[in-house]
Amino acid sequence: MTVKQYEQAHLAGVLALCEAEGWPTLPADPERAHAVLTAPGVTSVVALDGELVIGFAYALSDGHLAAYLSMMAVHERYRRKGIGRELVEYAFPLTGAQRMDLVTDDAGDFYRSFDHRTFEGFRIYPG
């Protein structure tokens, strides 16, 4: 298993992971997805088993102080093998930030394993 920065050749694998998670936004428009994954201020990394994308992380950052881990997924067959931790630990320094924030609905135990502080958070959607 290797972790590296996202390249367009990884797009189909990232979209397949999103579909498996029930996340329709990126797969709905692959061209837009690639633009999102490579936008200024974005750090996107993938975990590979050979050429197979088995995980990815997508973070937004100001490059100095704050980063936000927006999405991370690991293929179901590869979970609980340290891949998620490797993705975060690889991506974090690439953001240039001193801290990384995130919201999770079902992986709290995983994120608690990192040095952290817990805050209450909200996700606001357009009216």
Give a structural overview:
The chain has 127 residues and is α+β, with helices and mostly antiparallel strands. It has a single domain (2-112), classed as Aminopeptidase (3-Layer(aba) Sandwich). Helices cover 29% and strands 28% of the residues. It is built from 4 helices and 5 strands, in the order E-H-H-E-E-E-H-E-H. The chain has a 5-stranded mixed sheet. The longest helix is centred in the C-terminal third of the chain and has 13 residues, at 83-95. It is globular, with a radius of gyration of 14 Å. The chain starts with a strand and ends in a 15-residue tail after the last helix.
**Beta-strand segment tally:** 5
Mean pLDDT, to the nearest integer, reads: 90
State which percent range the strand residues make up: 25-35%
Distance between the termini: 43 Å
At CATH level 3, the topology is Aminopeptidase
- Name the structural class: alpha+beta
Q: What is the second-level CATH architecture?
A: 3-Layer(aba) Sandwich
CATH secondary-structure class: Alpha Beta
**Unreliable spans:** none
Provide the domain count.
Answer: 1
Which structural traits does this protein have?
4 helices, globular, 29% helix, 127 residues, alpha+beta, Aminopeptidase, 5-stranded mixed β-sheet
